[in-house]
Amino acid sequence: MSTLKAVRGTRDLLPPETALWNRIEAVARSVFERYNFGEIRTPVFEDTGLFARGVGEETDIVSKEMYTWEDRARAQSEKSQSLTLRPENTAGVVRAYIEHKLGETGQLQKLYYIGPQFRRERPQKGRYRQFSQIGAEVIGPVSAGSESPVRDAEVLEMLATLLDELGISGWTLKINSVGSASDRPAYIAKLKAALEPVVGQMCEDCQRRAVTNPLRVLDCKVPHDQPFIDALPKIADSLDEASRTHFAAVCAALDAAGVPYERDHRLVRGLDYYTRTTFEFTHGGLGAQNALLGGGRYDGLSEAIGGPKAPGIGFAMGEDRLVLTLQELDAAKAELADAYIAPLGEAQNPAALGLARELRRGGLRIELGDGSFRLKKSFEAADKVARTIVLFGENEAQSGILTVKNFSSGIQSKIARVELAAHLVAARTK
Ligand code: AMP
Q1: Could you give all domains of the chain from N- to C-terminal order, each with its CATH number?
Q2: If you ran DSSP here, which 8-state letter would residue 72 be given?
Q3: How many A from CA of 309 to the centre of ligand 1?
Q4: Residue-wise pLDDT tens digits, 276-290
Q5: Is the pLDDT of residue 183 over 90?
């Protein structure tokens, strides 16, 4: 009998990795609390219609990735029903908002969630069939200010804070505006017209999207299609006055808060419900699946699933990808030597070897340079392999006071030789 294994695209999370998952969730909860968000927990499966209407029939998620089944009635009083494992959580949160009449409070609802989502995707590193998202939504009646650009900027600023507190350095925020229900149709008409003469030369997915969901053509990553896409009209040129002003206000608030971002006029994202602001945080360490999180504004979603007008903005971050990024950052840090000793001149090589021996015997990881290198070359070599560089010239040898530069802080200091080992150990956690 063959042994049973976890299903393709799913996996077990074991210690010690689960400790990292718990830490990420604890940091996320702490940040959400400080921004006055409360937790919502919605069911893992919902009526299939919720996703068909809420996410959009033409999206990849709904058209090919959902785990859907016909749930048999158990009693005569019940009807059989088509159910789906949630592929994302925004539609469920908005359903709950409508079902519990949260709009009637007149307040903005600020809700966060952490939990598994399910998509039948092609599994690879960073992409699974069961994965976990940490997300949040700000939704409410217009009178509560739910359309205000300050809400968009606050969510983005919160995300920058969350990633920084998690220790994920080197992220990039890309933002765009995809327009509103009133200005988007005009852009889509322009896009269709511009695509018509060229789409025959583009990839199969683009040919299909040009008919079903032309905005998604902008998302295409196939290299051969890029010149065609670059020549298409830009959505920024089709925004009406209200959308333009809204987007400018989001950017101005980000500037004022000091949150760095890039504008990316091709950022449309895969879900149909987005209006106006769309955004994505990416990280270079993730490779092909480089999106850490994505989100945007969805002013018409509540109405699309039968609720009152309730504009909102939200995001979902891939927890699996946060874990991968942190593992890579930690691994990269751990592999660095504690110090690179740079002898200043060949005459210092023997004494520098003595210093390296002393430090290595003390348990430190040391790279020894070469006194025949020019200083610039030593710095370049050191920066690649070590956290700090220790300059070791004749003066240093005689005085016992060494010049030490830490690469991550950029701080250069004088350290007594007897204190060097302790200084280098302390620098490991900085
Ligand atoms: P989306 O709901 O498609 O906007 O995705 C939001 C975030 O969830 C992405 O930026 C990813 O970090 C993560 N994500 C989406 N799909 C998967 C998947 N199949 N496996 C792991 N993470 C995913």
Answers
A1: 17-183+239-329 (3.30.930.10), 339-427 (3.40.50.800)
A2: P
A3: 27
A4: 999 999 988 777 778
A5: no
